[in-house]
Structures are given as C-alpha cells and as structure tokens.
Amino acid sequence: MLLHRLGIPFTCQTPGIDENARTDESHGKMVSRLACEKAERVSNENPQAIVIGSDQIAVFDSQIVGKPGTHPAAKEQLLSFSGQSVEFLTAVSVQCSDTGFKEQHIDSTHVRFRHLHADEIERYLRAETPYDCAGSFKAESLGIALFEAISSDDPTALIGLPLIRTAAMLRQAGMRVP
Description:
The chain has helices at 2-5, 27-45, 71-81, 118-128, 163-172; strands at 51-60, 63-65, 85-96, 101-113, 147-151. The chain is an alpha+beta fold. It has a single domain (2-8, 24-172), classed as Maf protein (Alpha-Beta Complex), CATH 3.90.950.10. α3 (71-81) packs across α4 (118-128). The longest helix has 19 residues, at 27-45. It is elongated, with a radius of gyration of 17 Å.
C-alpha cells in the first residue's frame, strides 16, 4: 500500500532470514540489521534491482512488543498501553548489488495512548481484529482513535515504511521518484 503511493513499479519477495534478536543487541541495532539483511538477501538474488528491505519493532518498558496473535493477548497489550507511550522503530535499507549502493535509516515514532477503558478496547478489537500487528492496532484505520498523540519525522513510518526517507534513498540509488 505504501509503495504504491510513490508510483514506482515493484514486486515483493520474502527474504527468508532469521529474525531473532542476537545476544546483547540493542533494539535499534536489531531492527537496522534485519532491514539490511532482508535487502541484502533479495539484492544478491536480483543483482540489478534496487531493493528495499524494512523491519519494525514496538518497544514498551524497554521490551519488544510482539504481535498478539489472539484477542486476549491484544486486549492485555492495549490495557497495558493505556495512558502510556510506545516507541516504534522502523528501519529501511535500500541496496543494489550491481552498483554497490547501500543506504539505511531508522525512524523512531512515539505513540501516546489515551486512557483506554476496557469496553473501548473490546469494541476496537472486535471491529478491527489487529492480532497480527505489533501493538495490537492499525494506525492506518480505526486504531488512530486509541491515540492521544504521535511524534515522528515521518507519519508513514508507523504504518511500516518511512516513505520520506525511502523516496530520498531511491533517488540516491538512481530511481526517478516521482
């Protein structure tokens, strides 16, 4: 959805990398490494292509917040976020094996949740079922109603890809955007 906004042709490819954290790896280093490894793997398989790799994690109380997977887990996440802030780190890496081009960027987005009541959370989860989303919400739709504020240099980063910086890196790599 986000790449369509840039008006460039693309295909998607799953890189098939190990996405586990390494021992003593900071959250920023982990998300950056994963975005780079994804781009590198696909770039090596498609050396002439300009490849975008990305990764995102949510951090609450210094811990990575995963995808809830179930309704009860999503409810528990949102209850714990009530009145609190969650940081989303979104990394992007643009690479091209043939030219040797490699750039990366990490965007930090802080989401401050409103004080949420259990009935609001229940209505939201029933309406949107965001069980496959880290943080248990979809900011691009109804989940935005759960927030008090968002702080970021790029509002698209929270949705999964910081388009401002991605567009700049694609231009540096030789693409015409727009």
